[in-house]
Amino acid sequence: MKHFEFKNDKLIVLDQRKLPFEKEYFVCSTYQDVYIAIKDMIIRGAPLIGIVAAYGVVLGFKEIIEKNMDLTKIYEIINYLANSRPTAVNLFWALERMKKIFKEARNLSQSQIYSLLLDEARKIEEEDKNINKKIGENGNTLIKEGANILTHCNAGALATGGYGTALGVIREAHFTGKNIHVYVDETRPYLQGARLTAFELSEDGIPNTVICDNMAGYLMKLGKIDCVIVGADRIALNGDTANKIGTYSLSVLAKHHGIPFYIAAPVSTIDFNIKSGSEIPIEERSEDEIRFFNGKKIVPDESKVFNPAFDVTPAENITAIITEKGVIFPPFEEGILKLKEW
Amino acid sequence: MKHFEFKNDKLIVLDQRKLPFEKEYFVCSTYQDVYIAIKDMIIRGAPLIGIVAAYGVVLGFKEIIEKNMDLTKIYEIINYLANSRPTAVNLFWALERMKKIFKEARNLSQSQIYSLLLDEARKIEEEDKNINKKIGENGNTLIKEGANILTHCNAGALATGGYGTALGVIREAHFTGKNIHVYVDETRPYLQGARLTAFELSEDGIPNTVICDNMAGYLMKLGKIDCVIVGADRIALNGDTANKIGTYSLSVLAKHHGIPFYIAAPVSTIDFNIKSGSEIPIEERSEDEIRFFNGKKIVPDESKVFNPAFDVTPAENITAIITEKGVIFPPFEEGILKLKEW
């Protein structure tokens, strides 16, 4: 099966914490299970978080029916799911879509509402795959034959409904025969690069080399990087972009070396309600993600640990934002506002 | 005992790969053992590599006596030890000192030569401790009250004869009551920061916080870093400095944020024979340092891995070089040439 599936009123997700060497599935029978899957990063990636949360609403509504609760309890469930992670806006975007469906359908029968919610979740999922393919095609116009591309974290099939955002562009470049090679930041502390991106690329036969995050600048200096492509967790109106911690440093390094720096993300990652990145909440995660590695302690107890999960890359460090509706260039606000109208 | 000791014709070194949670010692009875200790990073740190190699020559000479070999075999042994690691110049510097002693003493009795070689190794060790203290005092003039200092890798007591270079400055600032706090890059792949620097600082009661390497830029952007201090493995005449991989990126990030970037190193780290950093050989280490973590595989087999152990920070990114003979500022070549004459 693929990395998630909604079947027989259960959402089954591949446990991404165990990849690539163990394939374990986590079964979400309740919306609380979905909350855990998101919060504990059993699944991750902004678009996928949105899709999974939508199915969480479906499971929540099922429970409302079964336990004969007030239908408006769904608002509580939606709020609960919205609290699973703070930074990726796709979560709130998907939950808003589900809320809208409920509001429009609330006078229908319970089973009708359930069907409409499930349809919407499936639609969010299906749309995302097509969106990614389109992002890939749009982004591919920026990729040169034989390019060495650096990516950070995992903005791949595993982070989305399929195909990927940053990796969608990379896949498209590869499958159109551009003979590319990818440098993959291992991406501490969670190693999404080494474990997930390298795995996805290797499965698709895309040549790739894993490096430690601190090696990227040196590679740029050696002239080994032609462009950087990463995903996004939230994009502000002015183009400021929150993404996995370390993205900001890469953007400064890319700028210093005159290397194009691209963001690839669906329009659902744009937060049209915020003007700049300073309004994006940055999640701090558990110290233990850094203190322990595979259960083995690596940091002395007396030392503190700081573990921000994201950082914000300012618009001025971004060469272009690749969306399913086209590639936008600075000044971003203009292009972003057009996307809203589109 | 301390982290290394020469006693009863054996060099006993603390296995730094196991720190901080296991204290295991590796006993070098032969110069080949010393070679392994350096090559396999049982011990590391440019100044310590020099000291340990000097004791390796002593052990080599002991074997020459015992096996009644030609005394000039010592040159072969010195060359052998010189091949243990390519980047840190202190190794070659210490071996040159030992060679010089041998040359001057070669007409004396075997036991006299042995004594002189042992004296020289002890002298290199003792000098290094005093040098570090002096580096600490000189560097402390640059540290402000309450400073938040970022450091990378381990340029501490464990990397030297004692006290440390970058950590010598930090210790001096702390023990003169400056109320400093240190951010420690965990320093992938070997985690010298998380395992060694955090350990040393915590042992001395110096407040410290461990971060992943990819978080440093974000901290700078947040205004949380007042200066960066790192050690060095080799400094060219123009001030270009080789140090642990990731140092170059930090220097670019520091420059971008207007944060002072300091190198702390003994004069023995200066290679007066090379004009610029482009002449410094950069060691590439085993892929397995990145592929495996505590014996657990983290990178798919199909992916390649690139593991450069060092990078070169260009002089223009360095605010000052702190040595035992004083602090030098740009243009560095002038100051460095004065150090040579000094």
From TrEMBL, chains A, B:
<dbReference type="Pfam" id="PF01008">
    <property type="entry name" value="IF-2B"/>
</dbReference>
<feature type="binding site">
    <location>
        <begin position="44"/>
        <end position="46"/>
    </location>
    <ligand>
        <name>substrate</name>
    </ligand>
</feature>
<keyword id="KW-0028">Amino-acid biosynthesis</keyword>
<dbReference type="InterPro" id="IPR011559">
    <property type="entry name" value="Initiation_fac_2B_a/b/d"/>
</dbReference>
<feature type="site" description="Transition state stabilizer">
    <location>
        <position position="153"/>
    </location>
</feature>
<feature type="transmembrane region" description="Helical">
    <location>
        <begin position="41"/>
        <end position="61"/>
    </location>
</feature>
<feature type="binding site">
    <location>
        <begin position="243"/>
        <end position="244"/>
    </location>
    <ligand>
        <name>substrate</name>
    </ligand>
</feature>
<comment type="function">
    <text>Catalyzes the interconversion of methylthioribose-1-phosphate (MTR-1-P) into methylthioribulose-1-phosphate (MTRu-1-P).</text>
</comment>
<keyword id="KW-0486">Methionine biosynthesis</keyword>
<keyword id="KW-1133">Transmembrane helix</keyword>
<keyword id="KW-0472">Membrane</keyword>
<comment type="similarity">
    <text>Belongs to the EIF-2B alpha/beta/delta subunits family. MtnA subfamily.</text>
</comment>
<protein>
    <recommendedName>
        <fullName>Methylthioribose-1-phosphate isomerase</fullName>
        <ecNumber>5.3.1.23</ecNumber>
    </recommendedName>
</protein>
<feature type="binding site">
    <location>
        <position position="192"/>
    </location>
    <ligand>
        <name>substrate</name>
    </ligand>
</feature>
<comment type="pathway">
    <text>Amino-acid biosynthesis; L-methionine biosynthesis via salvage pathway; L-methionine from S-methyl-5-thio-alpha-D-ribose 1-phosphate: step 1/6.</text>
</comment>
<dbReference type="InterPro" id="IPR027363">
    <property type="entry name" value="M1Pi_N"/>
</dbReference>
<keyword id="KW-0812">Transmembrane</keyword>
<dbReference type="InterPro" id="IPR000649">
    <property type="entry name" value="IF-2B-related"/>
</dbReference>
<keyword id="KW-0413">Isomerase</keyword>
<dbReference type="InterPro" id="IPR042529">
    <property type="entry name" value="IF_2B-like_C"/>
</dbReference>
<feature type="binding site">
    <location>
        <position position="85"/>
    </location>
    <ligand>
        <name>substrate</name>
    </ligand>
</feature>
<dbReference type="GO" id="GO:0046523">
    <property type="term" value="F:S-methyl-5-thioribose-1-phosphate isomerase activity"/>
</dbReference>
<feature type="active site" description="Proton donor">
    <location>
        <position position="233"/>
    </location>
</feature>
<dbReference type="InterPro" id="IPR037171">
    <property type="entry name" value="NagB/RpiA_transferase-like"/>
</dbReference>
<dbReference type="InterPro" id="IPR005251">
    <property type="entry name" value="IF-M1Pi"/>
</dbReference>
